[in-house]
Write a structure and sequence with these properties.
The chain is built from nine helices and eight strands. The chain is of the alpha/beta class. Strands 1-4-5-8 form a four-stranded mixed β-sheet. The longest helix is centred in the first third of the chain and has 11 residues, at 40-50. The two termini are 29 Å apart.
């Protein structure tokens, strides 16, 4: 299954929207021997190519965005080659079984890939006590030294409502709310 990775951008740069569009346009996905860039126009084209019934703009964009996948290599290349993204973006990866890296633990042949994805991420989207203890280096078999050596740094586990419907807005699973002490600014998230 694909792994759910989020790019969290700082709104502090006055031209951040244009910069985000520029950055995302470097990512490509190939379908039927054509490369599509991650732009609204080309996501719509991909959506129509994949599902010709998607003639409306929003439906075509939704279909294209659902099919568009990128690779860890392409994401790493973005960060290696662009100072703006390194300064203004945090990477968060889902840690769960369904769409996260824990789903890779069932197949040992993905162990190295799982470590690489988790090392690349700044944040783990997870809320279970066992995940928090692991990423804070509080387990006997995975102490702080192990986490920092294996994954570059301790990682904050953040959880909220992955609101794909109105009923989930401000209603995280099991009422596991996440509070970050600080100003409501990107810098507080970065410091977490």
């Amino acid at each position: 299954k694909p792994i759910n990775i989020h790019l969290l951008f700082s709104p502090d740069d006055p031209s951040h929207e244009a910069e985000i569009e520029r950055i995302l346009s470097y990512l490509t996905f190939e379908f039927r021997e054509r490369k599509y860039r991650c732009t609204l126009a080309e996501l719509a084209e991909l959506g129509r190519a994949f599902d010709p019934q998607q003639t409306a703009g929003r439906g075509a964009i939704r279909a294209g965005a659902n099919q568009f996948k990128t690779t860890l290599k392409d994401l790493r290349d973005l960060f290696r080659n662009d100072a703006w993204i390194r300064k203004n973006c945090l990477v968060a990866v889902a840690g769960g079984l369904g769409d996260g890296t824990s789903g890779l633990q069932e197949d040992d042949s993905f162990a190295a890939m799982r470590r690489e994805i988790e090392a690349f991420a700044h944040i783990i989207f997870a809320s279970t006590p066992s995940q928090r203890d692991f990423w804070l280096g509080k387990r006997r078999d995975a102490d702080r030294t192990f986490i920092e050596r294996t994954y570059r740094a301790l990682k904050p586990c953040l959880h909220g409502s992955d609101a794909h419907c109105d009923e989930k807005v401000a209603a995280p699973d099991l009422n596991r709310y996440c509070w970050i002490k600080g100003d409501p600014a990107f810098e507080a998230l970065r410091q977490a």
